[in-house]
Design goal:
Helix content: 10-25%
Number of strands: 23
InterPro entries: F-box-like_dom_sf, F-box_dom, FBXO31/39
Biased composition (Polar residues): 54-74
Low-confidence stretches: 1-50, 58-70, 110-130, 290-296, 399-429
Oligomer: single chain
Mean pLDDT: 79
Largest sheet: 10 strands, antiparallel
Region (Disordered): 19-76
Structural class: alpha+beta
Shape: globular
Radius of gyration: 27 Å
Pathway: Protein modification; protein ubiquitination
Organism: Colletotrichum incanum
Strand content: 15-25%
Distance between the termini: 42 Å
Number of helices: 11
Length: 611
């Protein structure tokens, strides 16, 4: 058995022997020494003044530092050489570190498109009984049937189920499929329900997947596994009555390069991404008929289980998964933990990503023993609908119980090989667990990634990271206070038409405020959950000019800061860059020190919601 485990460990790829050549980051140098194993802390020096862009009207010639040798794909400092990290000029990182309060972003409960957990969810969870009025008469029944149905339409599913147990008259209303169709439909965006298959009614269908309807409702989920993470799209397939989540992947169809006419030393990296789901291997899957044993009496009969096994179709790779509910952290505790440097006390999502609440994550390569009892919900009211966990492991059936075995692996550590005679993925077969780990997933609130007329770049994007391949980003444009025309310096011209005036007023408000690009998936250098670039102001304070030469002619260019780091997110720093606002669906980032331009494109998640 130990020999088999050794073979598994030895077969794993070694990142130190095979360095990865990166587009924006730096591969590990085999002889590097003198650096701590944790995240490095760069020294505080005066930031380098930004260089003007050769692409804009009125700018001077570029002053790139090209002292170090550059590969053919870069016109400036070669980012594929680890030591170049230390000769790059860097800019101020004020407001971008973990101790900056504006990074601990909390979405307020005033948003009306989402029903957050009650502020006193822990207190609500302790109420096991419902108080009843001494008056046994029900005035509701005196209303016309249509009004009763209209009132019941506002009830949450659990309350609707409670109403169905009060009397026969209300049971007829509350169990009607008219109401339960609406409850299911509200949780399956992108799908027009036509059948409750394999259940007889929509009420049975809702009960079969309760309390996991939040998974397809919020669609987008990203995790904390290693530095790279993973992004999945969860949807409902009514052909089979199942909820399933697949990893979202992207590849670029073009790998060509061209010189920038504005500056022949700058290389433009062509980018035509193709985004798809990895349909051959579900990350999570729930079948309605697989939950029948847990639902004999409807929703109220469901016994709350914080951890359940997932039976995934065609799983032939000896991998097993359990689904775990998560409990929100107290806001004060979450804030305190996030004061620490990366990985910010293992809080998920990390501080750069706006969230309504956060949960405790688990360090990569560790199993659920790292979770405190308070991190796990014990009742429905304690469970988060913004996060969940997946426990996964590889299983070897049979064999004696081995001792503790440690070894290196892609998750950093195979913590143990141990016999587990209890829960084994619902298969009922005793086996040996190898590489058990717990991965935490969180969603994005629609408020954050839904574009508006004044915040048109909000959304999910995919970017070109050269040797790293494609990575997914959240582009966030924080809301700002409204300003008047006078504050923006706008004065209507005498001969200006209504349309021209309206357009100029809108443009002044669109090109204003901060734009943040935050990684949802990462790489060995700059991990998931970190800023990849930030433009502090799209308005006059950050305005560089309008590009004069193709292929960016007429494009607005603003100052930005690009995030780079050594392998393992060591010695991260921000360097000078410029953001080109090509359109609301396409951006370009000019990495000044590297002498290259990379592209980013919007991802339409709705394309992946229909099976």
């Amino acid at each position: 058995l130990v020999g088999t485990a050794l073979c598994i460990v030895l077969a794993l790829p070694s990142s130190s022997d095979d360095p990865i050549h990166l587009g924006i980051g730096f591969p590990r140098h085999p002889t590097r020494s003198g650096h701590p194993k944790g995240m490095g802390t760069p020294g505080k020096m005066e930031p380098t003044p930004p260089s003007p862009s050769p692409s804009v009207a009125g700018s001077n010639e570029p002053t790139h530092d090209t002292a170090s040798a550059a590969s053919s794909n870069y016109g400036g400092i070669d980012p594929e050489v680890e030591e170049n990290l230390y000769i790059l000029p860097y800019v101020s990182d004020e407001g971008l570190r973990s101790d900056a309060t504006d990074r601990r972003k909390i979405i307020g409960s005033s948003q009306d498109d989402y029903y957050p957990l009650p502020a006193d969810f822990s207190a609500a969870a302790s109420a096991e009984t419902h108080s009843l009025s001494p008056d046994t008469s029900c005035r509701l029944l005196s209303l016309p049937s249509e009004l009763i149905d209209a009132i019941l339409a506002y009830l949450p599913p659990c309350d609707l189920a409670i109403v169905s147990e009060t009397c026969r008259s209300l049971q007829a209303h509350a169990t009607s499929d008219v109401h339960w169709y609406q409850r299911v439909q509200a949780n399956v965006p992108g799908t027009k329900l036509e059948t409750p298959y394999p259940c007889r009614t929509y009420r049975e269908l809702y009960a079969a997947h309760d309390p996991r309807w939040f998974l397809p409702k919020y669609k987008i989920w990203f995790c904390d596994r290693d530095l790279m993470g993973k992004m999945i799209v969860v949807r409902y397939d009514q052909r089979r009555g199942c909820i399933e989540g697949y990893q979202l992947l992207a590849v670029s169809n073009r790998t060509t390069y061209q010189h920038w006419p504005a500056d022949n030393s700058v290389i433009i990296h062509a980018f035509e991404p193709r985004v798809k789901l990895h349909l051959d291997k579900p990350v999570l899957q729930f079948h309605a008929n697989s939950l029948e044993d847990n639902d004999s009496t409807g929703i109220l009969g469901n016994r709350f289980l914080p951890e359940i096994p997932m039976v995934i179709d065609d799983r032939s790779d000896a991998m097993f998964s359990n689904f775990l509910m998560a409990r929100p952290l107290d806001p004060a505790i979450a804030t305190s933990r996030m004061e620490a440097p990366f990985p910010y006390g293992n809080v998920w999502p990390p501080p750069a990503i706006p969230a309504r609440h956060r949960v405790a994550g688990v360090a990569s390569g560790l199993d659920g023993d790292d979770l405190a009892p308070g991190d796990l919900p014990t009742r429905r009211a304690e469970a988060s609908d913004q996060a969940f966990r997946i426990r996964q492991w590889m299983e070897m059936a049979g064999g004696p119980t081995p001792g503790l075995f440690l070894g290196a692996g892609p998750v950093g550590l195979i913590q143990a090989i141990q016999a587990n005679m209890g829960m084994v993925g619902g298969r009922g077969v005793p086996g040996v667990h190898i590489g058990e780990e717990v991965v935490t997933y969180s969603t994005l609130d629609p408020v954050v990634y839904t574009p508006t007329p004044l915040k048109p770049w909000r959304g999910i994007w995919v970017g070109d990271y050269s040797g790293h391949g494609c990575e997914f980003l959240l582009i966030n444009q924080p809301d700002e206070e409204e300003v008047s025309d006078e504050e923006l310096g706008l004065i209507r011209g005498v001969d200006e038409s209504e349309d021209e005036w309206a357009k100029r007023r809108t443009d002044a408000r669109v090109h204003r405020g901060r734009l943040e690009a935050i990684k949802l998936t990462g790489d060995p250098n700059v991990p998931r959950g970190e800023y990849t670039f930030v433009a502090d102001d799209l308005g006059e304070a950050g305005f560089v000019g309008l590009a004069q030469e193709p292929p960016f002619q007429g494009t607005r260019v603003v100052k930005s800061k690009g995030h780079v780091a050594g392998t393992g997110f060591l010695d991260d720093k921000y360097i000078e860059s410029q953001l080109m606002l090509i359109s609301h669906d396409r951006l370009a980032q000019y990495w000044v020190g590297f002498g290259h331009i990379s592209f980013f494109e919007r991802v339409n998640i709705e394309e992946f919601m229909s099976p």
